[in-house]
Amino acid sequence: MSAESTPRKLNLMVWAQTGEAASGCTDVLELPRLRADLDLSGPPAPPIQWQAQVQQREQTGGPPQLWLHLLAQARLPLSCQRCLKPAEQSLEVDRWFRFVESEEVAQAEDDDSPEDLLVFEPLFDLLELLEDELLLDLPLVPMHESCPQPPVPGFSDPVEELADKPHPFAALAQLKKKSD
Ligand SMILES: [Zn+2]
After folding, report:
1. Distance from the CA of 40 to the center of ligand 1, in angstroms?
2. Residue 83 C-alpha to ligand 1 middle, in angstroms?
């Protein structure tokens, strides 16, 4: 199965039969709701890495259940609430979901189930789920652990200043050469 080419239209039943894990890299720019929460003024964010697998589990006294395991790693630039500069936030998703046949069943069983419930769709949008999970995991108040030093007005880097001017000893060396 080529999940990487169509992670937005995965045929769940076919996928469950193969038992294969699907994996891929997704650019944050492909996830518009997540993108809206990011500070993209800095260097581009690395792609989000994800892996997913669907399992069909037999259960006594009922039809088999469909489960999905999603793993993801992301490093997202959020706007630091202290200095307003981009602050990179690492997120990891490792979650199990169980598919149910309808929204009604999902609501009825949600309180009793430790796993998250998803409504079954023949063609499943994995990136939509990935985006939902990352949005849930975003910190409410993102902040640097320690903010980069704020720029001081009129501040100039002494190292750069030295590089611009000829070194005083270089001139001296020239003089010495001439006198030799
Ligand atoms: Zn900061």
Report:
1. 15
2. 4
How far is the centre of ligand 1, averaged over its atoms, from the C-alpha of 164 (Å)?
31
CB 78 within 8 A of CB 40: no
According to DSSP, residue 155 is labeled: -
Cα–Cα distance measured from residue 4 to residue 30, given in angstroms and rounded to the nearest whole number: 14
Q: Which residues of the chain have pLDDT under 50?
A: 1-4, 151-162
Measured in angstroms, how far is the CA atom of residue 113 from the centroid of ligand 1? 39
Cα 133 to ligand 1 centre (Å): 25
What is the distance in A from the centroid of ligand 1 to the CA of 29?
Answer: 23
Q: Which phi and psi (to 5°) does residue 172 adopt?
A: -60, -40
Do the beta carbons of residue 95 and residue 133 sit within 8 Å?
yes
Per-residue burial over 147-158, b if 16 or more Cβ lie within 10 Å, else e, is: eeeeeeeeeeee
Which residue has tokens 């598919």? 99
**Residues whose CB falls within 8 Å of the CB of residue 125, separated by 6 or more in sequence, listed in order:** 7, 8, 9, 10
pLDDT, tens digit, 9 for 90 and up, residues 60-76: 888 899 999 999 999 99
Cα 152 to averaged position of ligand 1 atoms, centre (Å): 15
Instruction: Give me the percent of the chain exceeding a pLDDT of 70.
Output: 79
C-alpha 133 chain-centroid distance: 10
